[in-house]
Design brief:
The complex is a heterodimer of chains A (about 180) and B (about 110).
Chain A: H1 4-8, H2 13-42, H3 46-72, H4 92-119, H5 123-153, H6 157-173
Helix pairs in contact in A: 2-3, 2-4, 3-6, 4-5, 5-6
Chain B: E1 2-6, E2 10-15, E3 20-25, E4 28-32, H1 34-46, H2 49-54, E5 62-67, E6 72-77, H3 78-109
Antiparallel strand pairs in B: 1-2, 2-3, 3-4, 5-6
Helix pairs in contact in B: 1-3
Classes of the chains: A mainly alpha (about 180), B alpha+beta (about 110).
């Protein structure tokens, strides 16, 4: 009997399932960051709004990158159903703290898939995911740096404006 | 044709000539390419059986699953979904076993 599955599909089923879950996670993150951008804009944090619009686009790009990979290797990429994101926040700090939680969850998820790829000897998928491993280091670092500003400057109106200005610089230059 | 896996009322076959799978169920035969096979398995797993049981809505106890690029439809009861949920993953295990055999036995002789 031919190995039809291997001839047609270059990714194992469990890895494909994990990649589809990651597609959904990235799509959810994109929607969440869009909601955060709206909140920031409503509260006159213009630079933070621009930061989250860019983040939202970036997460969608990540989603598409994985989506294309699954399709290219002959798998079935699933366009994900996403739930309504949270749109109300108590403060700018809460917005960035939630962002860090999201990024940490994404990092852990990527690491788990890399672990599964190693276990399954799927070197191609592991190699593909290395870009995401590196990207997540940068993503977390950027948000941690912004949260450091809250520690340093506090949350008085003047401090918040200064932090919002710093967000533009951090997002333009990276964390360093 | 090679029988990949079967349950009481359903069978999955692999055709090496046509490079596809055949799925026999309730007196009907459905031809599936590899992608269609994986997609159908995913659709079956994603059906919310709990919701089907709890819901009071008319027709909530059946699920309609399109296949073969919407050319055909499967109308499934909860029992049938459970049976197919046994059939497809079982077939997938057999196909993985076949892949292992290929890599260990056939590939090593090339």
């Amino acid at each position: 009997m031919k190995d039809l599955m291997r001839q047609r599909v270059g990714v194992q089923e469990n890895i494909m399932s994990l990649l589809n879950k990651q597609i959904k996670m990235e799509a959810q993150a994109s929607a969440t960051y869009l909601a955060m951008a709206a909140w920031c804009e409503q509260n006159s944090f213009d630079n933070s709004a621009a930061f989250f619009y860019a983040q939202s686009n970036e997460e969608r790009d990540h989603m598409l990158k994985i989506f294309h990979y699954v399709s290219e290797v002959g798998g079935v990429a699933v366009s994900p159903e996403i739930s309504a994101p949270k749109s109300e926040y108590g403060s700018l700090r809460e917005v960035f703290e939630t962002t860090l939680e999201h990024e940490i969850a994404v990092t852990e998820s990527i690491h788990q898939i890399v672990g599964a790829c190693r276990k399954a000897n799927d070197y191609a998928a592991e190699n593909f995911l290395q870009w995401f491993v590196k990207e997540q280091v940068e993503e977390e670092l950027t948000v941690k740096r912004i949260l450091d500003y809250f520690e340093m400057l506090g949350e008085e109106p003047m401090a918040l404006l200064m932090i919002d200005e710093r967000v533009a610089k951090v997002s333009a230059n990276g964390a360093y | 044709m090679h029988l990949v896996h079967n349950t009481n009322n359903a069978k999955i076959w692999q055709s090496d000539i046509e490079n596809c799978f055949y799925f026999d169920f309730k007196g009907q035969q459905y031809k599936l390419n590899v992608c269609g096979f994986i997609a159908l398995k995913t659709k079956l797993i994603n059906i919310d059986i709990e919701e089907m049981i709890i819901s009071d809505e008319l027709g909530a106890d059946i699920a309609i699953v399109p296949l073969c690029n919407d050319e055909r439809l499967l109308v499934l009861t909860i029992d049938e979904i459970l049976e197919l949920r046994e059939l497809f993953p079982g077939a997938m295990v057999m196909l993985e076993l076949n892949s292992i055999l290929h890599s260990r036995v056939y590939s090593s002789t090339l």
